[in-house]
Amino acid sequence: MRSAEINGEGVRLRAFRPEDAEALAEGYNDQMSQRFLTVVPSPFTVAQAETFIVERIDSLFAEGGAFYAVADPETDELLGGVGFDKAVPSRGQAEIGYWVGPWARGCGVATAAVRTMSAHAFKHGLHRLELVTHWDNPVSQRVALAAGYQREGVRRGAQPNRDGGRDDMLAFARLASDDGEAVPRLLPDLPGGELTDGVVRLRPLGPGDTAFLTELRSLPDVVNTSVPPVPPTPEKIRQRCFWAEAHWLAGTRADLVIEDAVTGEPAGDIGLFNDEPVTGQAMIGYSMLPAFRGRGFPTRAAQLLSLWVFAETGVARLIAGALPTNKGSQRVLEKAGFRQEAYLRSRLPGPDGGRVDDVQYVLLAEDLLR
Question: Topology of 5-175 in CATH?
Answer without folding.
Answer: Aminopeptidase (3.40.630)
